[in-house]
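The following record pairs a protein chain with its ligand, cytidine-5'-triphosphate.
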Amino acid sequence: MRANLRTSTKEPSATRIVLGVAGGIAAYKSVELLRLLRDAGYFVSPILTPDATRFVGEVTFSALASEPTRTSLYGDPTTPIPHTYLGQNADLIVVAPATAHLIARYAMGLADDLLTATLLATTAPVLLCPAMHTEMWEQPSVRENLATLRRRGVLILEPDEGPLAGGDSGRGRLPHPQKIFETLQTVLGGGAGPLAGQSIVVSAGGTREPIDPVRVITNNSSGRQGHAVAEVAARLGADVTLITASDLPLAADVARHIDTVRVRTAAEMHRAICDAASSADIVVMAAAVADFSVVVSDHKLKKEDGVPRIELTPTVDILGELVKNRRPGQVIVGFAAETHNVLENARTKLKRKGCDFLVVNDVSADGVGFDHPTNAVVILNQRGDETEVPLSSKEDIAYQILSKVSGRDF
Ligand code: CTP
């Protein structure tokens, strides 16, 4: 399960859970889930899709829940706009079962019933519990819709293997309500996700070295890959500090979970990273740090004074410093943007820098590197392993990098 999001210190009775039920045979199990949630004291608001009411009764849910079951966007006597009321007040939304149709509508951003509209109107963590026949579970369309939702921070509890409706057997069975309940409690209590308890420092963006009060020397780095690493690490439950020279905004679902330090120059980045790295488990140096800074003029250089002579001085090699001062067990990851002899240069750089991993990309290739939403990289380690990650979104590359460097599989 890819996880993260937020931790709740609220009492169960003050914790509002929306229980969404879509139209699948496993809908009967959500009655038991509702009972477990109520027994634990949570405030539960059920939403049944119109198809769910073909499988389970509204009255059953209303009798067990904290407030009456809702099934429609319209005709609610308590509020004219139930989706915003439910979405904004939820501490967590769980959809069990989530059918292939519900998953597709959610991934598309459709809001054609109360449940999908509520899912769009919330910033709370969402846990989907898919349940369907194996053939449907394995359909590329379902896989892709789930991948899209995962990238947006939605938590997916994978179905179990076992007997399915109609006498079939295979993967697709809704997990036992107790398992869903325990997963929910982990998400609400924090600590969810394979990187929970790990502290990660990520640097991103191209530093800007001032020449005079109006001019700078910089590079083409957009910061997208470093931001994607920070966002994905947060979704995986890590404690993330991002030190960035990029102005890019962070993804809305995780922005508030990332401790962000904005810097401009290589010197500022050096200071911020030294502070943060002293207690980090993993440091990812995705930033394109200037190798030289300028001896800055305190006044604007004027044309009439002729072609200026710009004096450069070397900056500190931050990655080198990190390796020199690393604390025991700390994993350090460097990046390399190359344009020729890519792997050869990367192998030499990995040795020279002494970091544990080096992520190299060929920035001259199509769709790769600076300012593209996609990237293609090779991840090298000191044992000589080289893992090629073909052209993929920067989020997917981030998952691969974090999986490799943390030694976890997700
Ligand atoms: N790096 C750093 N401090 C610097 C320059 C680079 O920490 N002053 C880090 C980058 O964040 C990256 C790695 O070092 O993780 C490699 O950066 P790169 O520019 O590719 O390597 P350089 O050592 O600068 O070598 P060259 O530019 O000659 O390829």
